[in-house]
């Protein structure tokens, strides 16, 4: 197929504007990078590679705020996924990625291919994926379309992960009207590897082969990267052609074949990279750039699912389950043999060439001849305007909202039915959480915990994001996201190692939104430094808007922690009657952005108050030490719904109860959401020493009973309720709302 | 006793079965590829869970045409233990080694959770370490686990004591007669939807599946000594 337009026609008709390349960028490419008019194929490649999704041109200045190194980090951002040393020659590899736009348009395939994409990032590093997590943010379940989207998103995640045989062990699901027109679907994958097997996405060595492996290339997902870099409106919300279709069976074969090659024949391999966003062009150009090489590809050799695809379509297709390899010359047939065994194609489509040019042939003609760096390194960073939103300036002046709680039992029952708090087991039961038999703690706890077979070690992992706090105070909200993740990991008895993130925001050309991005990343970065948890991988998803209305800024933190002895993992529900119950951390009147405020007022408002990050980190470290020493019999971190909800959750699925003296706390404070708090239980004989160690930061509030009642005296009220009553409303809320036909 | 764990394209509980036998039971176990045509030297064969051939067409429908299948059928015919869990059970019904079929769950959803089971027959080579009518709990993890057979077949299964496990309390998938696991008439081929291999270690919270493997291995020991 010939070029659809001549270079002159492109200059005149400006099709690139529809592909999200700006006038200024086009001019810069023309005058500074090429010194000539780019042809149709080249213009397409530039528009994909210069999209925010591939180049981070807008977010880069902000991303530089993150720390991404420490003594444990073996690979930071820039590769398929980050890698962290966990001792014994082993490493944990993880990354999260957003698939928000595809999931909003076509929830089933969008979510499924989100899982597929992140898994390839993990095994392209040479690691075997051992667990998946997700972070899902939906609109309200009162909307019939949203109920269908929830069901299909969950089915998509389940079908892909279940078929791959990778357990989904943790995650979060929240509901807020701000996600009604733009769902957030973030998927995280965690892999385990021997450090000697670490791979790079690199192509080098003149004459070496560029090999294409996996599924054939079709017309699906063309311009997915630019699709992800523009916001929604009613006209484009059915852009289904930009959504890819997943085949998890193909990916399972690809996983086994790639790991077979990496583990047993790494001497044949120079580099390997997933074909993710912007398909062949991004993987090949990035590999060539990494190896400082030139590259020549013959697109006629690319396995194709349909006839008459243009060079542009072949290069930009985001067909799933494909990988690009750089293989040492002379070993092409050897590699082909491995992939043959798994029933997969492996085809040499090009070679590494001298120089630094990126050259493509199609139908016997040269269709692209540009410097590699023009696609990868020369992208113009964009300066963004910033403006502090009026809502925050106003909130700073106002007196904070204070809830009136007349009947705390009623309030607790109501809170437990809020979809963000209610039991999610009807959703996560659709995920295989046990396959590969390493899951010590599955979904429904603070963090998922896996043992590392053959060692005493374990890994705890969690995803956390709370857009409401970030919306009301981006900097403090960013800190809270990190503290919440750390609290979940520590509550399981693990030491936080590092994080990955998905930065989900609205349109960054809006100065208020860019300000939110900047402030919240600053908050996260400060907290990462405090906790020594560098950002080792992640992604940015901007333009999450519908009809001009942005989502709450929702940075998601995916954290992994290391447990020294997995046999001593700390459960999140109470164990023994007679154990003393402690509240760790200071409780204030923090209601701005709380679940309580949303429930009682229908909206969120106010200013989320700053807190002492360093102090929180100090007592969390002490708490972890006490856990490792066996002081703690159970622990649960406080999040949505505060102390009241946490106490109830610690009793669910047990036969126990709690008798508490909370006379220092008001009924409202039972539902305050001050960050960095835990409820822990301690055996009575260890209580004195525990109190001594955590002096000032732990308050004894009562003890575990045999009665299956939650009973608490408050300063201004009383809480008295049977646990089964609480559990019933908590369990039934989501299944009931999902089945509703209203 | 030497046990083969067959690996089909798309098997993904092969590791679970292998590790249950190897790390926990210290049994002599080996992976065998679907390409192989022989199971010579093996005393028992196990078909793991997963999604062989992506469950495309029908769960287990393509796996039954692999090279290894005649060897598995020959082992069944020779009276040696043949065990299939989840996708393995589906393959055994597709291959005709067990009667009936596994349909999509009534809920039309994949379900992963622990379910209570009743051990109905504790006299098979796979279950002799359990008590008759004993209540155990094992994980299920499947989308197509609703057991179906015609009335005549169901009556025959009941009469011949071929129903080995039944769902107790709740029926999670719509299986007829609450069937969770059955044997062939001779009793040497067992297929079940629950995953005993996932319930063999206290660390992972459940050991109710351990005795299934111990039954088989104990049986093998007794045979070897005789």
Automatic annotation (TrEMBL), chain A:
Signal sequence residues: none
Gene3D superfamilies referenced in this protein's UniProt entry, alphabetically: PurM-like C-terminal domain (3.90.650.10), PurM-like, N-terminal domain (3.30.1330.10)
Binding residues annotated for substrate, in chain numbering: 98-101, 120, 244, 318-320, 541
UniProt keyword terms in alphabetical order: ATP-binding, Cytoplasm, Ligase, Magnesium, Metal-binding, Nucleotide-binding, Purine biosynthesis
Record Pfam families: AIRS, AIRS_C, FGAR-AT_linker
Active site: 53, 99
EC numbers, comma separated: 6.3.5.3
Protein residues bound to Mg(2+) 2: 121, 274
EC main group: ligase
Binding locations of ATP: 56, 95, 501, 538
InterPro entries hit by this protein: PRibForGlyAmidine_synth_PurL, PurL_linker, PurM-like_C_dom, PurM-like_C_sf, PurM-like_N, PurM-like_N_sf
Catalytic activity: N(2)-formyl-N(1)-(5-phospho-beta-D-ribosyl)glycinamide + L-glutamine + ATP + H2O = 2-formamido-N(1)-(5-O-phospho-beta-D-ribosyl)acetamidine + L-glutamate + ADP + phosphate + H(+)
Biological pathway: Purine metabolism; IMP biosynthesis via de novo pathway; 5-amino-1-(5-phospho-D-ribosyl)imidazole from N(2)-formyl-N(1)-(5-phospho-D-ribosyl)glycinamide: step 1/2
Domain Phosphoribosylformylglycinamidine synthase linker: 10-57
Entry's localization field: Cytoplasm
Role, per record: Part of the phosphoribosylformylglycinamidine synthase complex involved in the purines biosynthetic pathway. Catalyzes the ATP-dependent conversion of formylglycinamide ribonucleotide (FGAR) and glutamine to yield formylglycinamidine ribonucleotide (FGAM) and glutamate. The FGAM synthase complex is composed of three subunits. PurQ produces an ammonia molecule by converting glutamine to glutamate. PurL transfers the ammonia molecule to FGAR to form FGAM in an ATP-dependent manner.
Family: Belongs to the FGAMS family.
NCBIfam families tied to this protein: FGAM_synth_II, PRK01213.1
Quaternary structure, from the entry: Monomer. Part of the FGAM synthase complex composed of 1 PurL, 1 PurQ and 2 PurS subunits.
Name of the protein in question: Phosphoribosylformylglycinamidine synthase subunit PurL
Source species: Limosilactobacillus caviae
UniProtKB/TrEMBL annotation, chain B:
InterPro entries: Class_I_gatase-like, PRibForGlyAmidine_synth_PurQ
Record flagged with keyword Cell division: no
Organism: Limosilactobacillus caviae
The protein's Enzyme Commission number: 6.3.5.3, 3.5.1.2
Pathway: Purine metabolism; IMP biosynthesis via de novo pathway; 5-amino-1-(5-phospho-D-ribosyl)imidazole from N(2)-formyl-N(1)-(5-phospho-D-ribosyl)glycinamide: step 1/2
Active-site residues per Swiss-Prot or TrEMBL entry: 86, 195, 197
Keyword DNA damage recorded: no
Reactions this protein catalyses: N(2)-formyl-N(1)-(5-phospho-beta-D-ribosyl)glycinamide + L-glutamine + ATP + H2O = 2-formamido-N(1)-(5-O-phospho-beta-D-ribosyl)acetamidine + L-glutamate + ADP + phosphate + H(+); L-glutamine + H2O = L-glutamate + NH4(+)
Subcellular location: Cytoplasm
Domain of life: Bacteria
Keywords: ATP-binding, Cytoplasm, Glutamine amidotransferase, Hydrolase, Ligase, Nucleotide-binding, Purine biosynthesis
Role according to the record: Part of the phosphoribosylformylglycinamidine synthase complex involved in the purines biosynthetic pathway. Catalyzes the ATP-dependent conversion of formylglycinamide ribonucleotide (FGAR) and glutamine to yield formylglycinamidine ribonucleotide (FGAM) and glutamate. The FGAM synthase complex is composed of three subunits. PurQ produces an ammonia molecule by converting glutamine to glutamate. PurL transfers the ammonia molecule to FGAR to form FGAM in an ATP-dependent manner.
The protein, known as: Phosphoribosylformylglycinamidine synthase subunit PurQ
Subunit comment: Part of the FGAM synthase complex composed of 1 PurL, 1 PurQ and 2 PurS subunits.
């Amino acid at each position: 197929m010939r070029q659809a337009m001549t270079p002159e026609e492109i200059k005149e008709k400006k099709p690139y504007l529809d592909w999200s390349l700006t006038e200024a960028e086009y001019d810069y490419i023309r005058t500074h990078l090429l010194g000539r008019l780019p042809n149709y194929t080249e213009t397409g490649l530039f528009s994909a590679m210069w999209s925010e999704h591939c180049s981070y041109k807008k977010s880069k200045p902000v991303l530089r705020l993150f720390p991404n190194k420490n003594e444990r980090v073996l690979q930071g951002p820039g590769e398929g996924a980050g890698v962290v040393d966990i001792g014994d020659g082993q490493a944990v590899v993880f990354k999260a990625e957003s698939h928000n736009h595809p999931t909003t348009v076509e929830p089933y395939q969008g979510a499924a291919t989100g899982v597929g994409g992140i898994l390839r990032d993990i095994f392209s590093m040479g690691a075997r994926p051992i667990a998946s997590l997700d972070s899902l943010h939906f609109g309200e379940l009162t909307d019939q379309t949203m109920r269908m989207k929830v069901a299909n998103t969950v089915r998509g995640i389940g079908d892909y992960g279940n078929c791959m045989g990778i357990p989904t062990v943790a995650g979060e699901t929240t509901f807020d009207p701000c996600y009604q027109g733009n769902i957030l679907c973030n998927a995280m994958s965690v892999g385990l590897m021997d450090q000697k097997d670490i791979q790079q996405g690199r192509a080098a060595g003149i004459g070496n082969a560029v090999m294409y492996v996996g599924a054939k290339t079709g017309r699906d997902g063309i311009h997915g990267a630019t699709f992800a870099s523009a916001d929604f409106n009613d006209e484009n919300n059915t852009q289904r052609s930009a959504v890819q279709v997943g085949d998890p069976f193909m990916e399972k074969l690809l996983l086994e074949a790639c790991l077979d090659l990496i583990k047993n024949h790494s001497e044949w391999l120079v580099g390997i990279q997933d074909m993710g966003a912007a398909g062949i062009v991004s993987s090949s150009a990035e590999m060539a750039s990494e190896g400082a090489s030139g590259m020549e590809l013959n697109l006629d050799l690319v396995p194709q699912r349909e006839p008459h695809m243009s060079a542009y379509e072949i290069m930009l297709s985001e067909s799933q389950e494909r990988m690009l390899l750089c293989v040492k010359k002379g070993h092409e047939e050897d590699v082909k043999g491995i992939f043959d065994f798994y029933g997969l194609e492996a085809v040499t489509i090009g070679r590494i060439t001298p120089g630094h040019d990126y050259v493509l042939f199609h139908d016997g003609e040269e269709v692209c001849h540009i410097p590699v760096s023009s696609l990868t390194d020369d992208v113009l960073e964009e300066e963004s305007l910033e403006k502090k939103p009026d809502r925050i300036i106003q909130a700073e002046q106002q007196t904070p909202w204070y809830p009136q709680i007349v009947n705390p039992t009623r309030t607790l029952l109501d809170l437990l039915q809020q979809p963000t708090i209610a039991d999610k087991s009807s959703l996560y039961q659709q995920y295989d959480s046990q396959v590969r038999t390493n899951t010590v703690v599955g979904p429904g706890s603070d963090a998922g915990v896996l043992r590392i077979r053959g060692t005493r070690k374990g890994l705890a992992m969690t995803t956390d994001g709370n857009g409401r706090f970030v919306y009301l105070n981006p900097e403090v909200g960013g800190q809270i996201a990190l503290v919440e993740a750390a609290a979940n990991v520590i509550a399981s008895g693990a030491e936080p190692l590092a994080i990955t993130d998905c930065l989900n925001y609205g349109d960054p050309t809006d100065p208020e939104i860019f300000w939110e991005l900047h402030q919240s990343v600053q908050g996260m970065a400060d907290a990462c430094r405090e906790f020594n948890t560098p950002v080792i991988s992640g992604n940015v998803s901007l333009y999450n808007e519908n009809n001009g209305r942005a989502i709450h800024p929702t940075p998601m933190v995916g954290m992994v922690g290391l447990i020294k002895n997995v046999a001593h993992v700390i459960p999140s529900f109470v164990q023994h009657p007679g154990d003393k119950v402690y509240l760790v951390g200071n409780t204030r009147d923090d209601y701005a952005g709380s679940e309580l405020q949303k429930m009682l007022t229908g909206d969120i408002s106010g200013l989320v108050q700053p807190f002492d990050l360093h102090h929180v980190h100090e007592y969390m470290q002490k708490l972890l030490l006490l856990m490792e020493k066996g002081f703690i019999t159970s622990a649960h971190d406080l999040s949505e719904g505060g102390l009241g909800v946490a106490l109830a959750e610690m009793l669910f699925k047990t036969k126990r109860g709690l008798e508490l003296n909370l006379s220092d706390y008001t009924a409202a404070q039972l539902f305050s959401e001050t960050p960095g708090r835990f409820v822990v239980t301690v055996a009575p004989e260890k209580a004195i020493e525990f109190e001594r160690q955590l002096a000032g930061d732990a308050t004894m509030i009562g003890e575990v009973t045999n009665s299956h009642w939650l009973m608490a005296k408050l300063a201004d009220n009383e809480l008295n309720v049977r646990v089964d009553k609480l559990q019933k409303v908590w369990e039934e809320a989501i299944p009931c709302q999902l089945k509703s036909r209203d | 006793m030497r046990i083969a764990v067959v690996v089909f394209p798309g098997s993904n509980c092969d590791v679970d079965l292998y590790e249950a036998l190897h790390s926990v039971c210290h049994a002599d176990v080996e992976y065998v590829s679907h390409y192989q045509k022989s199971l010579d030297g093996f005393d028992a064969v196990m078909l793991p869970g997963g999604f062989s051939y992506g469950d495309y067409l029908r769960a287990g429908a393509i796996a039954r045409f692999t090279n290894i299948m005649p060897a598995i059928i020959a082992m069944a015919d020779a009276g040696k233990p043949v065990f299939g869990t989840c996708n393995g059970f589906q393959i055994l019904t597709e291959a005709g080694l067990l009667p009936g079929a596994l349909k999509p769950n009534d809920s039309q959803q994949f379900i992963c959770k622990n379910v209570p089971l009743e051990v109905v027959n504790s006299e098979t080579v796979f279950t002799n370490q359990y008590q008759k009518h004993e209540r155990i709990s094992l994980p299920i993890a499947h989308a197509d686990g609703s057991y179906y057979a015609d009335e005549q077949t169901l009556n025959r299964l009941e009469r011949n004591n071929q129903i080995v496990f039944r769902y107790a309390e709740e029926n999670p998938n719509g299986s007829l007669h609450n069937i969770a696991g059955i044997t062939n008439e001779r009793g040497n081929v067992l297929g079940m939807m629950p995953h005993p291999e996932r319930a063999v270690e206290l660390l992972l919270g459940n050991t109710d599946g351990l005795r299934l493997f111990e039954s088989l291995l104990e049986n093998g020991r007794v045979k070897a000594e005789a």
